[in-house]
Amino acid sequence: MAFSEGYDAIKSQLGLDIAQLILDSGDAGIWLWNVQTGETIFNDKWADIIGYSLQELLPVSIETWLSFAHPDDLSKSEQLLNAHFKGDSERYICEARMKHKQGHWVKVLDKGKVQSWDENGNPEWMLGVHIDITEQWLKEREIEFLHAKLQKFTDNLPGFVYQYVVENDGTAYFPFASSKVFNIYGCTADDIKNSADLIMQTIHPDDLERVVKSIEKSRIELCEWHEVYRVNHPTKGGIWVEGKSSPIARANGSVEWNGYSEDVTEEVKSNEKIQLLTAVFSTTSRGILITTPEPKIVDVNPAFEQITGFSKAEVLDKNPSILSAKQQPTEFFELMWERLIHNGRWQGEIWNKRKTGEVFPELLTIDAMYDEHGQVSHYIGAFDDISQAVEKRQLLDELVNQDPLTKLLNRRGLDIQLHSFSHHAANEGNQFSLIYVDLDNFKLVNDTFGHEQGDNLLLEISEQLSLQLRDKDILARIGGDEFVIVLPTLAKLSVCQDIAGRCQKAVEGVAKRYATKVPVSASFGIALYPEDGKNAKELLATADEQMYKMKLKHKASPLG
């Protein structure tokens, strides 16, 4: 990581741990700024964000930032800086545009904090980062453009957009309705501007009570209104209409809905087959959901609600991904869709989540339904909660792969982990290391105090070894007094030696409480992948050999 001039002088003055800063910042541009003198230091990533090398920008100062920042953003930046200097904010955070070398604007999230103050309490050195958020910025602008375009073409939609109001006295009317209201109800926007009676009169008598009750429920609970019902159109005859709207409580106590209705007659007819299938499965214990090809959930059965905790209303029109526990990699779903599209069917185990957030495994089958043109019209997913079966399977795995005394991985469990690490490391170019730890003179504890105390010592040693490791590190007990530590992503010998040394001292610290003729200690050996071996057998053999050499040295010492 390269920095501009002045960095070496200032890093010791501020006591900054730049190595840790780099780890925390990732690909962020780093800046150091003397608020009083204007002296500024940048790293190479800061320059890279705007398309330059650090060398091209030298010499750098605060003027470098001012020359590339968008003029319209500098005032906001200055206000936020002054607020931070006054103590009104813990950090300075500002979004600003910067001119790229190629002429376009990029957007950065500028974050910083004063690191030192002078004797008068004025800010001196400030440290911060620039994070490139251009992609997010461009997406937001695109969304704004699409929203404006949607507004412009509202009247060209097949259905009609409306605002519906119910006053406190029960009076209902449509303050706004797009011109397509005629296609749905056979009336004009002016016909319903002061009263909704004309529309209510067109709703099929068998559906009217249901529609009225659903509107009242939406008014009281302020929940989304969504109904499919029949309308007696004056020229089209009987049609099916789907209406959706969201309620808002007004300050005067009335409620307004903003929504959309469309003619779904053809869709209802095409869904008759799905409705029959849904009825067939309505009493099954298997959870069922039906989606469109997009996919969008169009129906679920009671068992789905019972298993997931989601009501039908909560998932309709949602993507099935709302159920995903996100425990499978992207490749899993890519392969699932590939087989589903090719074969029209997929079955397998998948992890989903309930409404409570609880993750659970399910056996899922997805079948494609096709229309008369051979195109997918819907997907039907049926699943069973297999939590108990998976728990039993996991328990069996634990019994087979776990050391019964310490609950650490045993030799079999370690071999599985090492095989996985070796496989992924070979494919992805990763590195890892392992430490083979063997207890010296442990037999004396059993001989002196008995096996029960020997087991207690092993438990204490296991606990102390674990405390020396990171959460992602693996500790296994592969023999009576033999342990193996696996260090993912770590393959630097000096660091491994430091860790092994800490483990060695931890063992000796615990063993002091067991006064044997010769004190219990630990010997260790280290193996790095791929230098010392490319599979579990080779790595363990190398580490064991190194450990044995240390053990011989211990035996040759006066303490034995």
UniProtKB/TrEMBL annotation:
One of its GO terms (molecular function) is diguanylate cyclase activity. Residues 430-560 form the GGDEF domain. Residues 346-398 form the PAC domain. Its EC number is 2.7.7.65. InterPro entries: DGC-Regulatory_Protein, GGDEF_dom, Nucleotide_cyclase, PAC, PAS, PAS-assoc_C, PAS-like_dom_sf, PAS_fold_3. Keywords: Nucleotidyltransferase, Transferase. It comes from the Bacteria. It is an enzyme of class 2 (transferase). Residues 22-88, 164-218, 273-319 form the PAS domain. It holds the Pfam family GGDEF. This is Diguanylate cyclase. The lineage of its organism: Bacteria, Pseudomonadati, Pseudomonadota, Gammaproteobacteria, Alteromonadales.
